[in-house]
Structures are given as C-alpha cells and as structure tokens.
Amino acid sequence: ERGSNNSFTHEALTLKYKLDNQFELVFVVGFQKILTLTYVDKLIDDVHKEFRDKYRNEFQQKGTLGLLNGTFDFKDDFMRLLRDAEESSKVRAPTVMKTFEQSLKSQKTVKCMIETRGEKPKEKVKNKKNKGSKKEGTEAVAAPGKASAGDKQPSAAGDREELTKDEILQKNREEFFKRHMKAGEKSGKSPKPEAQKEKGKKPRVWDLGNSNAKVLDYSNSATNGSAEACPVEEFDPDTALGDRNREPGRLYDLEYESDDEAEEEKVIQNPSKPSAKKGGLGGMFGMLKGLVGSKSLTREDMDPVLEKMKDHLIAKNVAAEIAVQLCESVAKKLEGKVMGTFTTVTSTVKQALQEALVQILQPQRRVDVLRDVMDAQRHHRPYVVTFCGVNGVGKSTNLAKISFWLIENGFSVLIAACDTFRAGAVEQLRTHTRRLNALHPPESHGGRTMVQLYEKGYGKDAAGIAMEAISYARNQGFDVVLVDTAGRMQDNAPLMTALAKLIAVNAPDLVLFVGEALVGNEAVDQLVKFNKALADHSMAQTPRLIDGIVLTKFDTIDDKVGAAISMTYITSKPIVFVGTGQTYCDLRSLNAKAVVAALMKA
Amino acid sequence: AMAGRLEPHLEALRRELRAPDPAVLSVLLALLAVAVTLLIWRFVQGRRSSRKAVLLLGLCDAGKTLLFARLLTGKYRDTQTSITDSSAVYRVSNDKNANVTLIDLPGHESLRLQFLERFKAAARAIVFVVDSVAFQREVKDVAEFLYQVLVDSTVLKNAPALLIACNKQDVTMAKSAKLIQQQLEKELNTLRVTRSAAPTSLDGSATGGSAQLGKKGKDFDFSQLPMKVEFVECSARGSKGEEGDADFEGLEKWLAKVA
C-alpha cells in the first residue's frame, strides 16, 4: 500500500521496482547505494518492455502453469540491455577545454583587459562633496606636474602588461579631469580650468532647513487643472465597460458551475466520442462497446476519480499527505490493468482503494494482550505496559478502562503513577483504584486486591518511580503493571528525552501511544516525532519504538474515522484498543472492515 | 368423470387464451418469468455449491508456493514471498481422474485475511502448511491464524476437510506431526479463552466470533471440530534437494481422497 515510493534501501543496497499490472509482474533492480546510477529507471523500463513483448504469449495463453513450467531465458537479453544503458549514460564526452587561441580573450588587446583597481577610486572621487573636490583640485595641481612626465611612461609601458600603481592612479586622474573639462586640453593647463571649474559649479545644499521646497521641486510646472497637460487618449467604452447589457447599478452574484454530474460515472468513452458525433444510435452502441470491451486503465482515466477519492478521504479526517500517498499507490497498482466487463473506472478504483485501506489496518504483529500476559505470568514476572501521548488525549481514563478489563479476566494490576507533573494526576488514579476495588472486592478474587496504586507524589523522576514500581510488582506478585506518564508535546525536547529515558531504562513489554480520534494532520507529526525521540535516545541496537496505538474519543466522531488510517500508516503498528466513552466498559477492539466501510461511505 | 371435471377447466383456459385479456395474460407471463428465473438461479447456485478448490494456507515462509509448484510440475523452483494468489487445476493421480483447483494464497499478515475472505466460500478442502523447523518459535502466530480460519462462519458452515501439513521435514531439527498437534491443541485451548475475552468489536460483533471452538469445559481437541482434521508430514524440497522429488505421498493421497 506504500506503492507511491518506488525505491527501498536496506544496508548497502538500494532496490527500485516497477509493476506491470496487466500481467501481474514485478521488476526489481538492485544496486549498491553508493553508486549513483542514472540509467536505472531507463534500464528497468527497457527490461520491462522487452520481457513483456518476448513472453506475451506465454502469459496470455498458459496462465499459471505456463509461469511454473516455462523457462524464461532472459539472461542474454538482460546483459545486452544493461550494456546499452551503461553506454548511453557515458555518451556525452567530457567537454574539451578550448585552447587559448580559440577563445575570444586572445583577440582582445591587452590594454582593455587590464582590470585596474582605479575603478573604485574613480567613483569615490565623483561622489565627493564640495570640499573634497577642492582637495582634488590641489592634488590635481601637483599631479599634472608629474603627469606630463608620467604621460610618456604609460605609453611606453603600454606594450608591457603591467603598470605600476602610481601610474595607474595618474592615468585615472587624467581621465577624470578630461571628463569634467569641456575642452580636451592637456594636463599642463589644468590649474586654470580648475579655477574656472570651481566657479562654474553650483553648490548643492543638503540641509533642508535652509532651503524651501521650491528649490528641490524638480517637477514640471503645474499641470493640475489644465486640460492640455495630459493628452486625451483613445477611450473605447466597450473594452472598458465590458458587458454592454448589464443593468446599471446592480451587483451580480458570483457564478460557479457544478460539474458533479459529469464526473459521476465516468465510463471509458474513447470509442464513443467519435461515434457520438455521428448520431444518437451510433453513440449508444459506442458506449455499450466501451462498457463491455476490455481496455487497460491509463493515468488520465484514473486521475479525476483519484482526485475525488483523495478529497473524500481528506474530508473524512485522513491526514492530507497520507491521502495523497494512498492515491498514488493505488494509481501505481492499477496502471495498465485490464478491466473486466461491466466495470467502470470508478468502481475499480474504489475497490482497489478499499483493499489498500483494509491492508493498512491489518496489524503486522499479533494484537493479543491477554496471551502475552499469560506468558509473562508463567515466567513469574510482571507484564509492563507504558502509556505515552500528548496532553489531554485520555491516557489516565483509558488506563483505568484497561485495568478494569484485565481485572475482569482475572489478572491483578499495579498502576504506577509516573505523571509527577500534572496537578491531580495522582489523585485521579487513586480515585480510579478505589472505584475498581469497589467493583471487584478482594473477597470475590480469593482475598487478593486486584488493583493497587504505586505513587511517590509529585516532582520526582518518572523513570525512577517506574523502576521501583516494577520491582515492587515482581516482589508482590502482580501480573500487570500499567505505567501512566505525563502528557507532553512532541516538540518539547527535554520532555521527550525524559520519556525516551523512561522507556529505555525500564524496557516495558508494550509501549502504547494514546491518540485521540479527533486529531487530523497533527497525528502524523506526533507519531513521527515520538518515534524519532524514542529511537534517538535509546542506547540499544534495536531501539524500542511504539508497539501499538490506543485510539480514544471514538464516540465523538461519527464517521470521520480517518485518524485510524493516518496513525497505522505512519507506524505500521496495530490499533490495540479503541476508547468510546467515559465509563469502564467503553473499551473496544478495532474492526477493520467496519472502519473502512465508514470511510468509503459517501 | 375426471375428464368431465377437467373439460370445463380446459374450456375456460382455451377461452382465456383465445380472447386475450391483457391483465391475465401479463400476470401469466410474469409468473412464467419468475419461475424460469428461479430455476436458473437454483441451477447456478447448485453449480457454485460444488466447491472444487483446495486452499493452501499458512504463515509466511511455510513453503506453500513451493508445495504448489511441486504438486503441479514436480520441479523445484526458487520462490519469493507471494503477494497475490495463484490458482491452477491439479489432476489427481489415481484412477478416478478427478481434478481440483489448487489455490495458493499469500501468507503475509496484512494480506492473508483478505484473500481468505475471497476464496473461503469455494473451498472444498484446506491444507494448512506449517513450518516444522520454526514451529517452536512461531507457535503462537500459527495458532492464531489457525484459530481465525477455524472460527470463520463460512468455514464452520461448509466444514471443508482440513489437513495440517507439517512441512520442511527434510531438515533434521523438524518437529514431528504428533508434537505439533499437541502444541497446537494446547495453544488453541488458551486462545479460545483469550479471544472470547477480548473487548468487543466496534460495531458490536465479538472479535472471536460467536462460535465457540470445540466443547466447553473440556480441553480443546481437534476431534471436537465439525470437519475432518488430519496431520501429515511432508517435505516440499525433498530429501535430495533441488534435483530430486518432493516427499509428500501423504499429501497426495489425501488430495486423492478429497477430490
């Protein structure tokens, strides 16, 4: 059901696969992870095509016996395809570097390529203020003295590629003055033009207080009110107004089209499309042909239906990314499949989606708590269950319900109050203990108190209390220890570390994550982060992760049961219990078919 | 006298047929159509009820697909974990020359119940393949799957013959069929208590099925089941490995009996 991602990594190997749904074949390619092979996808496609074409007859005619008996001598073909793929990936020869003669650089003169640091000083000089420019003037006076001497040198040195720093500076100064002076006089005449330049300059006053807005107003003279200023443009009332037939002054409603009817039962219509144009009767025959004939499914046929199913799932409170991945994997599973007679695209997709959902909800490990408790009983050690989850999901309530169920089945329970933070947590558990003992008094169980509370008040270390509780249970012969922890947000790093430490140190038999059925996309984030925290802070080779899920507050959602799917998809662990109310009897187990039926109901 | 009594009726019928009164005629036609439909339906159901399928069930890696291949072709094949069912017609090797449809179902936890749902109605017999080498380790999982198969309402109603094939006997550490039978009986005994004590399902139906396996009060025994149960030892790989034949005469004889 996780078909959307088609590659899988295990230790040093990466596997990529491709499905052929028409003949029910799976093509798997394995290669070393460190090699980044670009031709893998193309290779697998080629292999698929060639194998299918070569053995098409055997698949179609002989069926299962053909598969069993047939020898598929494909090795030579495969080696050939592999060689082709490898060569095609090497086809682009490494680009030969151009020789110096070929480049454009050699064709430029040396002079224009010199990147002199004088570029920057030039700009700085330009932006200087009045005083700065005066300073320049004095410098410039001194410079031309040298400039004439240095002038010759640059020209002489022009052939050489290097210029000394001073010469570069002088060269730039010359250019600077040349630009400011109107006449292209020689550098020797610079003092006089300097004096003229100074007079010619207008002072730029920056202080706003001294000037009024008029000085700074560079806009054209006033054009407001005069009609000549802006020319009358060509005004076409049609394009501006749009609809000519509208009633003046009325506000229209937003129009929308509902295209539900069009998508309702999308039959494959390719044969019918041209025939519909021919005539009504021809169109009807074409549609019947489309119903009866066998055609393979393509992506385009499935896309609208899948979109609708995805939205439907999201409306049923399945997390968005999981709905997307589910629809992707269903599409991959159905692509190219040949549909039977009298089946529409919608029904096929719905059927496949239903199977995928049931598959997700089937546990990959056994869900029998009582059996495991019996086992632990035989080995004379208590069975430890830890409850974790975010704040307010119902850990303590469901812990009480589970202990009631265990007592009904004849097991004695020790409740460890490891929630040392929340005010009233210990009192809550004590009240539950008292009630349970009232419901199942020691007299009816052979003088044994069936449920007891182990608490050490508030503020202490939870992991330490859990360890003491477990050893107390072992000494006193309790069958089950239920450890209640404080609720914590998945982003709270120190609290997550504390929880991971509790679980790593005490090694419980069952770690149950308690989640409420009302949660939507948050479920994904919570579970991922909880698992990550447990994995990161564990010292062991195989870290203890979440073993099961308790889904609470199930009575508050009527049929928006998508949270069950989100949680089992993320963890691949089963939903062990479902909480459906506040009393002790409101504990159920999950029925996969009922949940899927509720999900798929329109 | 009899003819005299029939005559007026015949006359009335003839008159009716000659003067077609639309209402009566349409009623007659409708009744005829219903009768024909009922006949066809009963015929089809009769055909369906002759179940001809033998299901191969078991945990992952029990050897179902190899057994399937060996029974059909006699050759050894490298197999992968099945993700879908395979079915083929198997001709029984005795004088009767009957044939059954062998159906090999995947054993993976998330797939097995789905495929069982699909094929359980057509099952005439069930072969439950058990890995005798890994049995000690997997006994709880084996028992749980067997329990789920046995309490299924369709299976209880049809009561197909059950054969528990203890596979992989070519390995020296394999457990014997007797031992496997004892262990399974003990485990199923415990399971029926725990399963019926499990919290009821969401929509009200009990998870363990309302059926009680075996007799209450007494320890569970395979003879208490409504169907015939046999244990047989076999080896799909065979003592000679890939070149030789598989050792499953017991299985073949049983299939011949069932067909």
Automatic annotation (TrEMBL), chain A:
One of its GO terms (biological process) is intracellular protein transport. CDD domains: SR_alpha_SRX, SRalpha_C. Residues 574-587 form the SRP54-type proteins GTP-binding domain. It holds the Pfam family SRP54_N. InterPro entries: AAA+_ATPase, Longin-like_dom_sf, P-loop_NTPase, Sig_recog_particle_rcpt_asu_N, Signal_recog_particl_SRP54_hlx, SRP/SRP_N, SRP54_GTPase_dom, SRP54_N_sf. SMART domains: AAA, SRP54, SRP54_N. Keywords: Endoplasmic reticulum, GTP-binding, Membrane, Nucleotide-binding, Receptor. GO terms for molecular function: GTP binding; GTPase activity; signal recognition particle binding. Residues 114-124, 181-198, 241-253 have a biased composition (Basic and acidic residues). GO terms for cellular component: signal recognition particle receptor complex. Residues 114-165, 181-207, 223-280 are annotated as: Disordered. It is found in: Endoplasmic reticulum membrane. It is a peripheral membrane protein. Its main location: endoplasmic reticulum. Residues 254-264 have a biased composition (Acidic residues). It comes from the Eukaryota. Belongs to the GTP-binding SRP family. This is SRPRA protein.
TrEMBL record, chain B:
One of its GO terms (molecular function) is GTP binding. Keywords: Endoplasmic reticulum, GTP-binding, Membrane, Nucleotide-binding, Receptor, Transmembrane, Transmembrane helix. InterPro entries: P-loop_NTPase, Small_GTPase_ARF, SRP_receptor_beta_su. It comes from the Eukaryota. It is a single-pass membrane protein. It is found in: Endoplasmic reticulum membrane. The chain crosses the membrane at residues 23-41. Pfam families: SRPRB. GO terms for cellular component: endoplasmic reticulum membrane. Belongs to the SRP receptor beta subunit family. This is Signal recognition particle receptor subunit beta. The gene is Srprb.
